[in-house]
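Fold this sequence, please.
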Amino acid sequence: MSGSSATPAETFGITAEPGEFVVELRGVHKRFQAGRRSVPALRGVSLRALRGRITGLIGPDGAGKTTLLRLVAGLLAPDAGQVLTLGRDATRDPLAIQDDLGYMPQRFGLYEDLTVQENLELYADLQGVPRRLRPARYEELLPMTGLAPFTQRLAGRLSGGMKQKLGLACTLIRAPDLLLLDEPTVGVDPVSRRELWAIVNRLVRAAGMSVLVSTLYLDEAEHCHEVVILHEGEVLGQDAPRAFRERMRGRIWTVEVTGWKPRAIQARLARAPGVLDAVVQEERVRLIWESGQSPEPDRLLEGLAGAGLMPAEPRFEDGFIATLRAHGATGGAVARADGPDAGAAGQPRSVAIDARYDRPSGSPVIAVREVQRRFGAFYAVKGVSFDVARGEVFGLLGANGAGKSTLFRMLCGLLPATSGSLNVAGVDVRRAAADARARLGYMSQRFSLYGYLSVRQNLNFFSSAYGLAGRRRADRLAWALEQFQLAPFAASASADLPLGYKQRLALACALMHEPDILFLDEPTSGVDPLARREFWRRINELAERDVTVLVTTHFLEEAEYCDRLAILADGAILALGTPAEVKRLAGSSPARPFTMEEAFIHLIKRDIPAGGVP
């Protein structure tokens, strides 16, 4: 969010004096067996969470967040150390503890063939809630979650955001003293994310509930009273979000070059000496300077005519990234001068990017004309039209159920259009879907590789499916294992990989045949911030080589990397243009600049005729 408005934690008026701890971990260790390997999940973790507060668990994939929540819930026992939940030993009294807490795991078990009301009744039965108490509880939960009009709808027919809210309602049927939430907003659109957090904030303020929540969205950390940063099973810090922000004051700067693509400037500045991190934000590039460093504008901006360097307000994400970098975490996220992308003598390789903004010219690589897709009487896609040029990064944004994945499947030839035309790489997808598929790579929203096959076997299988053989197949296999740092996992079953490595493998499989066009359907859903940085570095490099990229995402800051984007609502295009044009359409101005998330929410919530930027 832009501006300097106070966070929920700061507006609750809750003082910092110690209170009763609802969770205490004392020197906790936990290991798991993965084949013949013993893998540490938590290493000497000690932390405390106060009653009536929201405590956030923040960290990259494999940091130990889910393991920690399962220990607190009494579902796992520590190998060493002690876990106290609600004042009781979680190893000795797990059932008593579970009676007093609510736990919503990453994959909450809704019954999709049951209605919303039937799911609520089932979980009320499982939690032993007397029937006489249920109506009053439903009257409170249904309006709170916005599900009151949908009690007779099958759970399988709900959008992703509504499913998450139903899962939360089922967890809360018996009002718990402590609520555990494991990444509750993964795969949920920004509007639904805000609604979920509004529910959590209300529970804390009105009911005095204590919440322990893990999340991959760093802006959500601002809702927490305290956050715990975890990395590789260790606690790197615990403090209020404001404290992490303030430590970064004086180290945050933004660079803007009029008329240039921000991702082009980001690719250059990410490798500059003294730059700890560089990301695209609001048509600018946001920089974190290494501790003790001072920016040297003449050196940093050399060759960038019209560039401006300005100080910026720190945010929690800056403190998070700096904390991880200080402890050696890279995630392959940003190519540093001493990293694997360095050239001779440690000098950064030159990055040849078509840096200036230009409207796409020539014949489009993807042409969509008045496409519709009907399921019975329901139209999932309604008269959608747009073009994508060669080498362009084109984003499709929209709330859950807007029609993005349906449109993707039609473009890939996996689902026939009801009407309209789809042309991909010069091929009419409706008539020659197989020919079109040979020219593109596709990475689906959910991990869709063969979990029981090893990493190497998956790469071999997809190479064979794409017709690769002999030396080329061997070369591409070696390329994938090296470029995506998959060699140490080559013999591991893909189902056992951490989520970030599953994403790497899926992208590698989609690129084995060196496609001209790449379709990415929410590829970073559930992936931590470091892995997302790495992912977008790779996408930028592909675009530099004239690969056309069509991508959907719920991380709206990622939309800033797109050359153009379309926002879908109810199957139709609501806005179409560059990120700056879309923001202006939503009402952004120099006096009141919008983030992409703010622009998205403004557009979704107001009635704008289809047709894009005037």
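The two ends are 26 Å apart (CA to CA). Residues 190-207 form the longest helix (18 residues).
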